[in-house]
Amino acid sequence: MAMVNITLSVSEQLYKKMKKHTELRWSDIARLAFEKKLLELDLIERLLKNSRLTERDAEIIGNRVKAQIRKRLEHDIGN
Description:
It contains three helices and no strands. The protein has 79 residues and is mainly alpha-helical. The chain has two domains: 11-48; 52-79.
């Protein structure tokens, strides 16, 4: 399989931390992270392929879930 190179920018702070771990192959780690994210996106696309939910529907559901989580956290912190 042919490979191509990409340039990736990271903060100086992150770069310094990465340099402390020369035993790791950061390009492999980045490649695996890219592959994992693409698999997640593929799964989401397949799940939503036949969905009748609109983006607005998803936003409403998301807001309701966040509100319930917020209520639960406020209750747990209050007790």
